[in-house]
Amino acid sequence: MTEAKSRVRLGIIGVIVMALFSALFVRLWFLQVGSSSTGFAAQTEANRVRILHEPAVRGSIYDRRGQKLVENELVNTIRIRRGLTDEERKILVPNLAKALKSEGVTKGYVNDRLDSGRYGPYEPVPIKDDVPYKKLVYIKERPEMFPKVDVVRRSVRVYKLFEEIKLIYPSVFAEATPASHVLGYVGPVNKGEQKLHKGEGYGPDDVIGKVGVEQVFESELRGEPRTRKLEVDSRGRLVQVLRDKAAQAGNDVQLTLDLDVQRVAEESLTVAMRKAGKLKDPSIKDRFKTFSAKGGAAVVMDATDGSIVALASAPTFDITEFTDGIPIEKYVALNDPKSNFPLLDRAIQGQYAPGSTFKTFTALAALESGTTTPDEIIQDNGELKFGDPPNEQTFKNAGKERHGAVRMESAIQVSSDVYFYTMGFRFWHAYNNSNLKKGYVIQHVARRFGFGRSTGTGLPDEHVGRVPDRKFKADLNKNSPNDSDRSWLPGDSAALAVGQGDFLVTPLQLATGYSAFVNGGTIYAPRLASAVLTPGGQSELRKLPPQKIGQVELDPAYRTVIMEGLKKVIIGIGTAAEAFRAYGGLPAAGKTGTAEVFGKQDTSVFVGIINPDATPETITDDPMTHQYVIVVFVEEGGNGGSVAAPVAKRIMQALSGDPNPPEVRLIQPKTPGGDR
Amino acid sequence: MTYNNPLEHRRHHRRMQRAAAYGSGSGSQGGGRGQLVDREFAGRLDWILLGACALIALFGMLMIYSSTHNKDPKDPTFYIVRQGLAMVIGVGVFSLLIRIDYRKFRDFSMLAYILTVSSLFFVLTPIGSTSKGATSWYELPFNFQLQPAEFAKFGLVVALAGYVNEHRGDIDPWRLTVMIGLALIPLGLVQMQPDLGTNMVLLMIVIGILAVGGVRGRYLLALAALGVTMVFAVISVGVLKEYQLARLGIGASAETTYNVDQATAALGSGGVTGQGYLNGSQTRLGFVPEQHTDFIFTSVGEEFGFVGASLLLALFAIVLWRIWRIAQLARDHYGTLVCSGVLAMFTFMIFENIGMTLNIMPVTGIPLPFMSYGGSSLITSCACIALVNNVYANRFN
């Protein structure tokens, strides 16, 4: 053993120590300086901060006359606080199941709720709403039997007015409520919605507007939840309240909807659908059958400002079932094809061929393009041949009915197909001569009046219909072996001229397009609400002005010619004259439509117009002076004049001020497709 | 004067030169005896070493307060009062040990060994008490506990250095076997608690002393290999509980992963300058487990950032540098060996403890010297520093 050896060994140890310290230093540098601190900061923040939300009282919804359609009411709810010990749980669960047996609470139910991941670790677990007062007192007075049980008041959606309507009109509203589709309902927020509304404080126990007005005006109706930002330690104990923001009740919303008109629309649709089952279908293919009339829609739009006065879809459902979460078996029944999809809002999601109701726009296209003049006379012999033999095709009026010499006004009144086929072929010739401006003039007019695109109502899942042209056909049939399937053929122009073929619209689109025609060319986005009110509805917080989304060219002279024809539809030899017998309401006009659907009975369509001759000078604040467009579709309902027109007539009577017009009277069609 | 060691001979000359420069005689060290403040004696202490240790200990008090004052809102100073008390005892132990010439320890190394072994033995009997799965405490009155495994570190340094010193120059395989056998008794007793962390420290002391003691390189390698085998044997025999294995990085437990994640988050969120004293949320709200004991470094990193953490590292580096230097300055071989043992012990403890919070070493229960809450550890550290300083103070004698 030498001194040198010891010194060398100590030296080596010194070097090792320095190396180890360098490693620590480098690692420390990397961790604290070299890497971004935001990730670590987020982690420590997530450790210490908990944000709790308590929902505010949701706002009420009023109709345009100020009737409260939807409001919130406090109900007593039993909740269990967190931090239940095993012993407490052993006492609590059986006692609770026993006490609330008649409310359907079982041990398994309580245990499931307690163990469910749906409720946050700091939030109490809701067990049962609307517990009878006597039981609440029983539970409240026995904390030893019900440890950590709270009785709180929770706010839920109620529909007092609808409960009354159910009693007054049981034949229609026993198992339904008016305006179910347009109002929509609230339900527990799901994962997808929580993601969509990230940062807005939706907890798993919160409710959110699912469809309809409840969804569209969610941000107004919801209010500001009470938000508490808590700091907790590693054991989850509260250290301090960092912030406590009080809840702010949701604003109320004033709709443009008129509950009376809405109710009449739904009654009329429902009754007409029932009665159509007794009408005989005169068409050749379905002879001896009656109409199945499986579904329908009605839209009432104030053409003056785009306000939606009624938006109905049939069959419908009972909105009150959704108040506290709809039972699963009821929800399954609502989605059963046998019940014809009551949850589907046909007014915005149903896509139908408009049939002859579209002739208004064909006529406009023909006048604008110089294809015809108002006074040109066309001989209607009940059919029209096109092309040369052997490729000759024959286009017939419904039932081969001959209308004789017609000009535009009378062609509209009697709905002469031959007249409009003639226009269609003229368009096609222009198309064939590469004059696309004239060849596609119907498509141009249709798009100008809002067909083929969203109306801008803001309602979720609105469908947009389609306006066909050659490109559409080429895309649709791109795999077809037949070249002609991809070409724009004379028959395509002819079918489009009478609102058939590949052309599809939603009832709301048809109402929007007609409104622009009626009001002289202003396209409004359908407006559901006119104002946001302060919580409680005492005063107006903010107006929701009409939303003008476009001004289309519309020559007043052309409009007058067409409107004269529309006014004659409901009188004399008009296609809806019989339906409008004893109408007695405000000045009116209209157009029938009978749309053929492959493999199904015809769709019955009617578009009604109120105050067709109103001018800006005659229109005042009085709703009776406004112009309205009423659109009615009845699936598999046959002629427009026999089912849809009587429904529209009754709605128009309601708009004229009669809240309970005479019952719908359907017209037995004599000829198959008596009009187009 | 007779010199057993040529090293001592040469240093004697250097000492004489320096003594002449100070202008004091060689026998003057006894002049101040009996006085409360012995200026001459104080002048012979390594104040850099003492200062660094004192700063670390005070830093430790700050951090213990920071990580414990929220534990019991009614008694926020519970932990620092106890740690302060331990510090007072530590200073007392230091003052006592500094005045006993370290060479006396050499003569009593057998006694130190017997005391160490018996304290480790009796803690396993019903006299000792069990906490967190380890039987490693003596319950004292007033809710105080003694952890004999901590004092065993000091005991092993004194005893092993004495034995190696006695047989310096002729450590043949037989002597080596005896030494290892002697070392294995306390190691085995500690393993029965079980406390693998302390055992790894004890093993490092053995290796450090034997290395500087001149054991041939191949024996050292064999010893290191034996140590590794033992650690693995302990693990595979199943003496360790699952959580202890996970701490060593063998198998993963959610607990260990959680500890390391929280420690890393605390350090990382500190950034360059830290969140500020008493303001680190991980520390204040107790998200890092065992933060006042084994994971105390994370609170420094969180609240004082890279600046504070590297300052602390620098203080530890100063401490190790001074111990290393004193090992070289020691007037005899025993002094060098004692310092080497203490150096190996502190180096391993610091590297393992800080390394585990930085996620580069497995998690084991080893305290950070002078910093971690725990009286036994602090007092042992004070005793070890007293020993080293004793070597320094007597380097010319």
Description:
The complex is a heterodimer of chains A (676) and B (397). In chain A, the strands form seven sheets. In chain A, strands 2, 3, 4, 5, 10, 18 and 19 form a seven-stranded mixed sheet that branches. Chain A has a five-stranded antiparallel sheet with strand order 12-11-23-22-21, sandwiched between helices. Chain A has a three-stranded antiparallel sheet with strand order 1-8-9. Chain A folds into two domains: 195 residues, Penicillin-binding protein 2a (Domain 2), CATH 3.90.1310.10; 397 residues, Beta-lactamase. The longest helix of chain A is centred in the N-terminal third of the chain and has 32 residues. With 676 residues, chain A is α+β, with helices and mostly antiparallel strands. Chain B has 397 residues and is mainly alpha-helical. Chain B has one domain. Chain B has a three-stranded antiparallel sheet, with no helix packed on it. About 4% of the residues of chain B have low confidence. At the A-B interface, helix 1 and helix 2 of A face helix 9, helix 12, helix 14 and helix 15 of B.
